[in-house]
Amino acid sequence: MRYFAPLAVFAVIVVIFAFGLHQAPRKDLVPSPLIGKPAPSFTLPSLADPQTPVSNAALRGHWYLLNVWGTWCVSCRIESPELLAIAHTGVVPVIGLDWKDRRSAAIRYLQQRGNPYQQIAFDPGGLEAIHWGVYGAPETFIVNPQGIIVYKYIGPITPGAWARDFLPRLRAGQAVSGS
Amino acid sequence: MSRRAPLGALLLTVLTLLAAPFAHAIAPTRMPTPALEARYERLIHNFRCMQCQDESLANSPVSLAADMRRQIRQMLLAGDTDAQIRHFFVARYGYFILFKPPFVLKTAWLWLTPLVLLVIGAVSALWFIRGRAAAVDGDDDEDERFDDGLTGPRKHT
Lengths: 179, 157
Prior knowledge:
The structure holds two protein chains of two kinds.
Chain A: H1 4-22, E1 43-45, E2 53-55, E3 64-69, H2 74-89, E4 94-99, H3 103-113, E5 119-123, H4 127-131, E6 139-143, E7 149-154, H5 159-172
Parallel strand pairs in A: 3-4, 4-5
Antiparallel strand pairs in A: 1-2, 3-6, 6-7
Chain B: H1 4-23, H2 34-46, H3 63-77, H4 82-93, H5 108-149
């Protein structure tokens, strides 16, 4: 009986550690306070042509994904095939935010790998990304026709994440019909 | 030579210490007035670098931290108050970006957990101490009862 208390304390600590190792939310994934809030509006030069502005005001009334990427970002390279597949399905337009990048490098990158983006806004200084609460790349936002941010995904989109985290939300909003 | 060595060591130490401030010149300061400069310094120490997470904007070398410092500098120059700047970042990154988050419903557990643990610790310490004291008292009582129970003088003492 006198050994019971230390054993119980030990058991509690083991449970807490097991939770911390396997179940606890990842510390590096910080939930965005922008979910459910209006997406910050931006007007930035297009990647392909500095004279052509890209603005998300023009996307009102449509679902879209905003994908933050850069050629310097290794995870974006991993994500690239899945983004191309998503663009190919035509389910939802993908808008690119080319973050802290060099224009020539980005254009070459897309020529080599293919371009999943309907439009690409160019943000070399990174100030627009701060408005979206971006702290890494890739990050992907789902924006609904009312211009509200519905969801934010951090890290490269995998086929599993697309099926689990994106499609149900797009379906719920009737961006995708059927199953 | 043996006399010179300490002097050389001293000189080296002093010069190294003099260079130390420059090692931290991650955020070179360019504010026009000392008052703005002080506010800028205080703000960049109070925000977390979202990328490295355990460093402040002032100490982080990553480029996102540099962008955020630039944003703070621009807002200060535009006449924003410290509260406005804090609100700007909290609205975009959440309370996580503040090293000292405010006491609101969402952060209550963060502030109250140490207090709860302290109370649990104090109660268990009290419980433990009283348990021991009671055990000692109990021994005395038994001794007394034992003595009382004897009709004659003690056998062995």
